[in-house]
Amino acid sequence: APAWLRRLCGHLLSERLLRPGGVQAVVRGVLEGTDGGAGAEAAALDWRKCDAVGKILAACPQQCLSLEDYYRQVCPQILALLHIQDKVAARQFQRVATTTLLTMAREQPQLAERHLLQPLLAPLRRCSEAAELALEDLAAGAVLVPEAELGSCVEDVFKVYVVGNDSSSLLLGSLQSVLGVVFSLYSFAKHNVSYLRSPSQDILLWFLEKAEREQSLAVLEGLARLSSHVPTLHPQCQLRVGSEGGAAVVVGETISDEDEALYRKISSEQCHVESLVELLSHCQKSGLAGDFFIHCLKELTQVAAEDEAAPNPAGEPGGSLLELEQHQARQGRKLLVLQLVAALCEGVSDTVFTDIVQVQEFLAAVLHRACVRPAQGPGAAAEACQGVSPCHTDASAPLLPTQLKPGDFEVLKRLVPLLEELSRSYPDPLTQELASDLRIAICTRGACSPGTVGAAAAAVLGRKGGTGAQSPAGDPGTTPSPPAPRHGERGREQSEPGASPAPAGLQELLLSAYDPQPPSRAAALRRLASLVTQREPEALRLQEKLLQVFLENLQHEDAFVYLSAIQGVALLSSEYPGRILPVLLAQYECPAQGTGDAVAAVTRMKLGEVLMRVTRALGDMVFQHREPLIRAFLRGARDPDSALRASSLSNLGELCQHLGFQLGSIIQEVTCCVTAIARTDPEAEVRRAAVHVVVLLLRGLSEKVTEVLQDVLRDLYRLLKHVATAERDAATVLHAQLALQELDAAMRRVLFPPQTLEKKIVVLP
């Protein structure tokens, strides 16, 4: 076109652009004739036109007096393009708005932030803790950000940031200021039904992917409430479910009850951590989850060191209130880090590390913790050394020397100073020797492994098993468990007279079941349990030996070990209940001689868990073992240990629920025991368990309550009414009310059966 025509058209467009509604009019005029079709040519044309319109809108016309005035007039209209309701034109208008905004942010960042980004993020910033809110003038429940406004804001942020996909420092910085509120919204939507969950998650993941790694870690630390890098939702604001599937921000109610406030605080923190772990589960391929996990381990070491260095003002007279508050803040931070590490271990630990560098940093963090706090025992250092040892479990398989590449040893060399310090200063000589061997293996690039270091590590572990505690639990009074023999002794042990021979693989598992390291021991126990599940002939042939191994590991203090042993005993008992249940019942009723009362009670509670797992596995077949099981639990309900009494009653209630109408005459004994305990036991948790037995009994019998319990129903009703009116423990009263509700529902079904219409055909003679 001629120059005069271009100037005239530009002048007319600029005049129309500066009028009210001019931006939308210009966009419609330029995009007229394009429909955003799916064809490649139409899509290319559409993209070019949208890009051209965006550049036109971003350029200030000559007629405008100042750039500030132009942005003040045009920017609100550009944001309005994101809300076009016409489905046909909405995609093109949104593309134009996004292109214009990104162009303005690149060319005039200060003006773009003032007139575009701040209004765009205003609803989210309004309820942030960084905002100065005068909430005293607002009543509880007052709406601070309506549902429609909040939903529109989140969708606009998704369109501009995620769809626009421009990771400039201006956009990342502006978005970081509201990420805390977006994360609160994501956590809220995760535990409720809301369409805002997906866009909130995409916004968070986009930022974590596009930002620098240090910035992403700082933001994650802020989202975990370990720092103030990210302003979160205002403490006096709360999210409420909207009527249209969204959410609204309202002024929260002031809770006067301290217990209720503490419960809500703990529940909120738990939901917060769960949401963060789920968010990190989407960041494992990029390595961000692994880096944050290592960051939390380092933070845990630092917090523990600070906690030891700082005195406890509660235990010292004359401590100031400020020191007490600082101590409580440190303890709260320590608990939060522990909770976060535990949740990360459970949620993303399977594939959290993506390369050898992250594995090295993880091991360095663990070894550093062992160097800083050697008084905590050999566990941390031994487990870390085991991670780079050639004789270890599958948990650290990526570090096997046979799987390492030549370049990986350069990374592992960073562990050498820590291993050297452990070999010199660690209090446990066995760990010192293992650390020294590993340092040599790394420095020689595996030339001394697996043969030399493997034999040395096996000897260390063998001596440790032979000279360690007398039982897996480390209690001198318990039955001694056989130590893990050295490699040179295994053939001699297998050839001893009277020992039943076993295949090499099974023999290795039996030896590993007494490994001094809990991870190796638990892995061996779970592998033995899986052999029982698969009905491996050799494993079933050695069922008595397996039962002995599982029962001895029940006494171990590590939860992962004894839970694996519980699983193994339960699987073995469900396969051979006639042989193994009598053994378990005998040990449950009569603990081993010489054990302390506390150890015996704990072991019996673990056996009770085994018996209940067997009961669930047997199903209706548990009837033939009814009397010995109930008799064992009734005896446990009279034990001096209150925890064992409560555990036995809980098991008794679940057994009664399984038996249902098969209880028979033994119901009299159960009723008498439960009634006496609920009325006279001094411990609230035991009385609570006794009433819970009645709840489970009524729930299991359902409509057969009046038939099975006809002789004791009145006594149970009087007991429940007595507990509901005279009991001081609130939880016990709640159990009694639940039982009364079950009884009321059962009696109503009997007295007022549902009316049904039946069709009868009678043939007259």
UniProtKB/TrEMBL annotation:
<dbReference type="InterPro" id="IPR017896">
    <property type="entry name" value="4Fe4S_Fe-S-bd"/>
</dbReference>
<dbReference type="InterPro" id="IPR039600">
    <property type="entry name" value="TANGO6/Rtp1"/>
</dbReference>
<dbReference type="InterPro" id="IPR011989">
    <property type="entry name" value="ARM-like"/>
</dbReference>
<comment type="similarity">
    <text>Belongs to the Tango6 family.</text>
</comment>
<feature type="domain" description="4Fe-4S ferredoxin-type">
    <location>
        <begin position="41"/>
        <end position="70"/>
    </location>
</feature>
<dbReference type="InterPro" id="IPR019414">
    <property type="entry name" value="Rtp1_C2"/>
</dbReference>
<dbReference type="InterPro" id="IPR016024">
    <property type="entry name" value="ARM-type_fold"/>
</dbReference>
<dbReference type="Pfam" id="PF10363">
    <property type="entry name" value="RTP1_C1"/>
</dbReference>
<dbReference type="InterPro" id="IPR019451">
    <property type="entry name" value="Rtp1_C1"/>
</dbReference>
<dbReference type="GO" id="GO:0009306">
    <property type="term" value="P:protein secretion"/>
</dbReference>
<dbReference type="Pfam" id="PF23565">
    <property type="entry name" value="ARM_TANGO6"/>
</dbReference>
<dbReference type="InterPro" id="IPR057407">
    <property type="entry name" value="HEAT_TANGO6"/>
</dbReference>
<feature type="compositionally biased region" description="Basic and acidic residues">
    <location>
        <begin position="486"/>
        <end position="495"/>
    </location>
</feature>
<protein>
    <submittedName>
        <fullName>TNG6 protein</fullName>
    </submittedName>
</protein>
<feature type="region of interest" description="Disordered">
    <location>
        <begin position="464"/>
        <end position="503"/>
    </location>
</feature>
<dbReference type="Pfam" id="PF10304">
    <property type="entry name" value="RTP1_C2"/>
</dbReference>
